[in-house]
Amino acid sequence: DITAQKLKNGGCAAVICNTVNRSIEVYKHLKARLEDTECALFHARTLKMWRREREEEVLRKFGKGERQEDGTYLNADRPERAVLVATQVIEQSLDLDFDIMISEIAPIDLLLQRIGRLHRHVRRRPKGLETPQFIVLCDADMEGPPPESFGKSIEFVYDRYVLLRTWFVLRQCSEIVLPEEIEALVKAVYDESSA
Question: What per-residue string of b and e applies to 82-115 under the rule 16 or more CB within 10 Å gives b?
Answer without folding.
Answer: bbbbbbbbbbeeeebbbbbbbbbbbbbebbbbbb
